[in-house]
Prior knowledge:
By secondary structure, the protein is of the alpha+beta class.
Amino acid sequence: MTRNFSLNRCLFMTVDPVHIGTGGYRLGRVDAAIAREPGTKLPKIPGTSLHGAARHYAAYRYNKPDCAGQKGHCGNGTCPICYTFGFAKGSDAQGYAGVVSVSDARILFFPVNSMHGPVWVSTVYILREAGLKVDDMPEGTEAWTSLDKEGDINLGWLMLKSKNGLKIEDNGLLDNSEYKAIKNRLVLVDDSLFSRIVNSNLEVRTSVSIDPVTGAADEGALFTYEAIPRATFLWAEVVVDDYRDKNLWKDGGIIWKCYKEENGPDGKVKYYNNDEKGRALYPAATNGLNNGEPKGWKCAWDVVNAGLEWSEYLGIGGMGTRGFGRLRKLTDREVQV
Ligand SMILES: [Zn+2]
């Protein structure tokens, strides 16, 4: 509680295909491409998308919808949303930066169809970057698996010679039922192949715009779009650098009450913090889930987490009306730095 800096590593799994567009069209084989790492061409979920979703959903959970978007924030020093994510106020450019930084979410295990059913592909390098312990690939192995079979294995269209015996040391990040379900279906490949395998096995769909007047397809309105497929595992890091010395979180999660007056003195909405008339924005830290109370959100990381948790229901990125976007946060662990 005394440390003002923390690095939190999170594991996510896509529950739907996730499409975070680049805003560009007709760049490659699809009309609407997704965001990628420039060097590896590996799809990713940009940190800005995660940050935006976390802010939005945390604001809903704290009943502070005014502070959800990119402007019109209350800017109050005791607002957990503005404190955590920062705020911008009015045209006089008044504002302040938040205390959290969210990294891109990068692929950890990517689902691919094989002759042995679905397998999840990764590389030694990627696993180590995510802080997991794994041995080097055995010499001369093209695919190193945790399957109970050896020999040829196809990853989509690509046929490789496989060897089994892969073991990944769990450091807490993998302690969840979703990982346990794929644990014996992992395949590690060489880094040079990974991007090719991922990009050949993305979800690609074709849709057509419907003319609302005729109810028929618009002329030339057929378009394709790609997405990170369902059941992809990703990891990201959230850095909390609470340079404001945690002054919001005194006494380990004191119950602050916020009273919202719709018609304040100047005719605007006004918030009164720590006002007896108000409702508790966040419960005491001593409250646990087991007594039916919500979690005690008692530091900036808890606020981010509260927002990220709702991405499982409300989704991130585009194509939401086509059933895209839900992202489940599986686990997190603080990394000692
Ligand atoms: Zn606010």
